[in-house]
Amino acid sequence: MSNEQDSQATPSLVMSRSKKILLGLTAIALVYGLSLFGEIHGKDIPESYFSSGYPSILGLLNSEIFMGLIFLVTIAVFVYVAYLLWELHEVAVHRAEETSNPHLQLIFALSLCGLFIDKTWWVLAVILSFTSWEIIGTSLSNIIQRGVKGDQP
With bands split at pLDDT 50, 70 and 90, how would you rate the model's confidence at 78? Predict the structure, then answer.
């Protein structure tokens, strides 16, 4: 029984490792490829790069590979922040889908209006998606019933 589990787990483990290796090689290739876009003039390290005998950071900044890595990290940070902002923008739509809100299309339209027109529409979409309409309907119904019957609370 354990041999069957080991043989089933092995292909997924190998696939996971191969994906990690492929991702690492892709990152290295990207760093090298992006370093080709930057040309740093003057490969000789001047004496001014050293202060009192110790090397300063300028020598590292003179490397194309390091600049390629910095460029890759900067682009990755910008893409990740854009992704997080998009997820924040879509929080109303995701909440409406989770709760099967009957106003899903309205919330989606308001969310898009909030993206392109004015953020007030997005705030309205968030309010609509997080509101419990059953409780509000019941409360309004009770208020109307009390008003029609003339009962005091």
Answer: very high
The answer to whether 125 and 89 are in contact (CB under 8 A) is no
Distance CA 118, CA 124 (A): 11
Amino acid at 25: L
This prediction's pTM? 0.49
Residue in 100, 110, 109 with CA at minimum distance from that of residue 134: 100
Query: Which among 37, 41, 31 is positioned nearest to 62, based on CA atoms?
Result: 41
Tokens of 102: 């009957």
Q: Which residue has the tokens 């929080």?
A: 91
Kindly indicate the confidence band of residue 4, based on its pLDDT and cuts at 50, 70 and 90: low
Measured CA to CA, the distance from residue 43 to residue 54 in angstroms comes to 19
- Using left for φ > 0, alpha for ψ between -120 and 50, and beta otherwise, residue 84 falls in alpha
